TrEMBL record:
Short name of any one Pfam family annotated for the protein: Septin
Naturally occurring in which organism (per UniProt): Xiphophorus couchianus
Chain ranges of the Septin-type G domain: 30-303
The family this protein is said to belong to: Belongs to the TRAFAC class TrmE-Era-EngA-EngB-Septin-like GTPase superfamily. Septin GTPase family.
SUPFAM superfamilies: P-loop containing nucleoside triphosphate hydrolases (SSF52540)
Protein name: Septin 4a
GO cellular component term, pick one: cytoplasm
Length: 317
């Protein structure tokens, strides 16, 4: 707010223009949280991609099951939490892994463990929010699900369709075309088109990138459109440093050449990382809070109200 003091006099300011700085300082001091879930059958490079995305090694002590164990095992839910600090900004990152997903002979409702876990986090947050001590509520709600799709089929498998349809009302789903280095560029383009058509055909509501405001610059609008057109992201992961032509980078070496993880020509890895970390992390959290959690919360309140009405009717009788 400003007040004019007449000709030749300076304007007076109240000072609330510093509010963004105050919010920034308080938020930075508190730190940020983000919970990312990964799902997809064994062997699609989930752990390698996560390690590549966040430059860490979350799976150092992992035991890889043999074929017999994979057939009989059930879906586990394993949580890894790490603290990351960059330029004074602290992030508590939780990775929810789902080993065993899609590996059994009978995969009917194998996503139920995943669905139950997401609901449990909503339930815990609802209880904490409704309790007396609401000051230090920990947000463990799942903000994003990276769903890995095999590159070796002809599109979405029945389990992919059923799983995403069961979960799309509870979590932001970002589909990934795994192991993109096993496909030619023409095959990647063809599979992306087919999978986007199938996602639309089966009524699967994946994460929707927010619409650009009319006052956004053209470069930002163009980048947003590129993101939308790149779904599902074709990804490659690698924890190996490769030397080639005097350069050292993370990639994979093949008889026919070298694949660079962070080369936009080779995969969408860089685009996915920028989207998750630099540009859309807050929107993923906002959609979780304002849509998915609010839907769950409304259902809980409706259920509680219904029970209270029934209890009153019974007490009157």
């Amino acid at each position: 707010m400003e007040r004019s003091l007449g000709a030749g006099k300076q304007k007076e300011y109240v000072g609330f223009a510093t509010l963004p700085s105050q919010v920034h300082r308080k938020t930075v001091k508190k730190g940020f949280t983000f919970t990312l879930m990964v799902a997809g059958e064994t062997g699609l490079g989930k752990s390698t991609l996560i390690n590549s995305l966040f430059l860490t090694d979350l799976y150092r002590d992992r035991k890889v099951p043999n074929a017999e164990e994979r057939i009989s095992q059930t879906v586990d839910i394993i949580k890894h939490t790490i603290g990351i600090e960059e330029k004074g900004i602290k992030l508590r990152l939780s990775i929810i892994d789902t080993p065993g997903f899609g590996d059994a002979v009978n995969n009917t409702a194998s996503w139920k463990h995943v669905e139950d876990y997401i609901d449990q986090q909503f339930e815990q947050y609802f209880r904490d929010e409704s309790g007396l001590n609401r000051k230090n509520i920990q947000d463990n709600r799942v903000h994003c699900l990276l769903y890995f799709i095999s590159p070796f089929g002809h599109g979405l498998r029945p389990i992919d369709v059923e799983c995403m349809k069961a979960l799309h009302v509870k979590v932001n789903i970002i589909p990934l075309l795994a192991k993109a280095d096993s496909l030619t560029q023409a095959e990647v383009h063809s599979k992306k088109l087919k999978m986007r058509d199938e996602i639309k055909q089966f009524g699967i509501n994946i994460y929707q990138f927010p619409e650009c405001d009319s006052d956004e610059d053209e470069d930002f609008q163009r980048q947003e459109q590129i993101l939308k057109d790149s779904i599902p992201f074709a990804v490659i992961g690698s924890n190996i440093q490769v030397d080639s032509k005097g350069r050292r980078f993370r990639g994979r070496s093949y008889p026919w050449g070298v694949v660079e993880v962070e080369n936009p020509v080779h995969s969408d890895f860089l685009m996915l990382r920028n989207m998750l970390v630099r540009t859309h992390m807050q929107d993923l959290k906002d959609v979780t809070r304002e849509i998915h959690y609010e839907n769950y919360r409304a259902q809980c309140i409706q259920s509680m109200t219904r029970m209270m009405v029934q209890e009153r009717k019974r007490s009157r009788n």
